[in-house]
User: Fold Nitroreductase domain-containing protein from Prauserella alba.
Amino acid sequence: MWVFPVLRGAAAAADPRTGASIYGAVQNLCLAARVHGVGTSLTTLYAGHEDELRALLGLPEDALTMALVPMGYPERGRWARPKRAPVEDVVHWGTWGVHARR
Assistant:
């Protein structure tokens, strides 16, 4: 399944952050899907085809797609543990480059 979050009133917006609040909802969708064994990925790689997509979906003139979230079940049927850096390596304290003491 493909989910396209759409924002009304964004098609003519000059501010690139217009609609950024929609990504919180997208994150919650992705987290909820994972609980039910459904994989997701947030992408905007389709954006070069926005006009074609607008026609295909019949979007109103003022609407703009904000992302594509493909959803499906993992091929192997189960999840691998995510690979993440330790929080101490990615959190900065007070200013960029100052990491937490270990």
Summary: The two ends are 43 Å apart (CA to CA). Helices lie at 22-35, 50-57, 87-90. The longest strand covers residues 69-72.
